[in-house]
Design goal:
The chain has about 280 residues and is α/β, with parallel strands linked by helices. It is built from ten helices and nine strands. β6, α6 and β7 form a beta-alpha-beta unit. The protein is globular. It starts with a strand and ends in a 6-residue tail after the last helix. Bound molecules: magnesium ion (MG). The site of magnesium ion has 7 residues, from loops.
Amino acid sequence: MNKFYYTLVISVLIFSSCNTAETKTEEKVEKIIVSESVYSGENGLSPTVWYQTSAENKAIYLQTYLFAKLMLSENLKKKYKKPVAVVTDIDETVLDNSPYNARLAKTGKMYTNESWDAWVNTKKAEALPGAVDFFMFAKSKKVEVFYISNRTNNTLEATMENMQRLGFPNIDKKYFLLKTDKSDKTARRDSISKNYDIILFLGDNMTDFTEEFANRDTTDFGTAVVQKYKADIGTRFIVFPNPMYGEWEKAAFRNDYGKSDIEKQKALKSSIKDVY
Ligand SMILES: [Mg+2]
């Protein structure tokens, strides 16, 4: 349900109509239903349509993976002390989960861990354009590939089976660092850095690169942190689009998922400007 209905006004409407023999007056009480929009799964409708159907989205993935190849080749020209690796997120970076968001948008339901895991366990996610080709390219250049994802560890087997079907490299538990306790990926990144020089990170959420993008400033929504990492964006951090969900949405809720659905919708509206 996108709309929360409540009765604001009861108006009395008097209708007069003429019959052949008599004039009959009907009194009708009609509730005028006024709606106030609330945050729900239906909020994801337009973003999901864009993500799933637009040629633009497919082109952006191809373009970004092409750029990732160029930067990987460029970064490989430098000297490193350790073996080199790339670290990538999974969801909306290499796998397309828009069918899950389509289900939310169509039913108005909100994300839950249970429904998400159920989707993951179908193993029906498809590869995003350019993804398999890029990671095979990395492997061909002797760059190790690690997957850091906040999919829960109990979906590891399903995730690996899904990605094996699609032709991704390194389908082995030692290359998959899923979520065991916390969403913060820092410790998992650090564990790879002990043995590898990570020459490229790929993700659709800025927290795939640094935790400094978690709990963003509620006035600039992380813009200052983007400026701080300007030299890394595009050179070490390869960013993909995700208008369906992400840390950006949490920031728009002022980092409070506990808000009521009406308050969430108000927070979304108050996060954008129409200054003109
Ligand atoms: Mg992701």
